[in-house]
Amino acid sequence: MHNISEEEIVRYFKGGIDCSQVVFMQWAEELGYDQEEAARMAAALGGGMFRGDTCGAVAGAMLVIGLKYGHYQIGDMETKAKLMAKVTEFHKKFTERCDSTICRELCGYDFSKEGDLDKAFASGKLYTLCPQYVLDALAVLDEII
Questions:
Q1: How many CB atoms lie within 10 A of CB 123?
Q2: DSSP-derived 3-state class of residue 54
Q3: Mapping DSSP to helix (H, G, I), strand (E, B) and coil, where does residue 30 land?
Q4: Counting CB atoms within 10 angstroms of each CB, which of 55, 60, 103, 126 has the fewest?
């Protein structure tokens, strides 16, 4: 079970660490990476890739699932099928909890629009809504892996 508190997540957010990084960093050691490597690999995925697309917590979870179940050999369709099943299961369970996997739908801001990121921080929503999405992503990962 991956235990991180909402307060710890907010501390990461206030320090510039994004949702994708927090999720992936919680699994780093189990997957053979240190915290710095995990944070760097997931860095470009926060805030829906800073465009409000796929939620960073979901994207971080996809890195975990890929490293755990991903295929890498040409023709390994059996492993690919297992990966696809885990991705589908994650999306289904996360959507059941959160209604969407899209950042702008979850937080109400479209970071591809100038000024929306500043508005999101000013509203405080990123410190109230997004930590729960991180916790939900981690709970779903713990459930399916």
A1: 14
A2: strand
A3: helix
A4: 126
Q: Is residue 112 scored above 80 in pLDDT?
A: yes
Which DSSP state fits 51?
I
CB 109 within 8 A of CB 117: yes
Q: Partners of 102 in the beta sheet?
A: 54
H or E element in which residue 138 lies = helix 130-144
pLDDT, tens digit, for every residue of 42-53? Answer: 999 999 999 999
For 26, the enclosing helix (H) or strand (E) is helix 19-27
DSSP of 84-131: HHHHHHHHHHHHHHHS-SBHHHHHS--TTSTTHHHHHHHHTHHHHTHH
Q: Identify the residue whose tokens are 């999101």.
A: 120
CA-to-CA separations, 61 to 57, 95, 117, 132, in angstroms, rounded: 6, 13, 22, 14
